[in-house]
Fold this protein.
Amino acid sequence: MPTTHLLYLHGFRSSPRSTKALLVQERVAQQHPGVTLWCPQLPPSPREAMDMVMRGIAGWPRERMAVIGSSLGGFYASCVAELTGCRAAVLNPAVFPARDLAQYIGEHASWHDPQEKFHFRAEYVDELRALGQAAISRPERYYALIAKGDEVLDWREMSAHYPGAHGRLLEGSDHAISEFAAYLDEVLAFLDLGA
């Protein structure tokens, strides 16, 4: 069954105004106008972020929904996919965010609006730990786009967390996957978006 509902989850310090999020929004509007797309601004608390997402998709048809997530959003997307059974595309996904973000406790500015500040609290690390998935089930439901040139996350850890998943391992590139536009059609084709 084609996907009629698509969720996009941004990464740490990011927003629905990220380059990748905007590319997805633009392509869906142009080529898949019948698809419901939701790209929420996620709160800094992982527990609140997942609660908000699960409430927001509560009425969505599980067999016709899919999720895309980038970086920390890739971690959340995997949580959503495991809870709902939907397809997921993860873009340089965080696989050990509790470990990696423990060093970022404190105040931060949003990438897309430096005036916008938020506080990443110590308890958020525990919330990430509580959400953590030991392994993905049914790797055939996953598409992982992973860059060896990621300057933030280790591509080996990402690849090891998605064994048997569809996708691509890019030579070079970067954490933002600057050439994401070149792979967007492939991502959306895997997610089987309807018209």
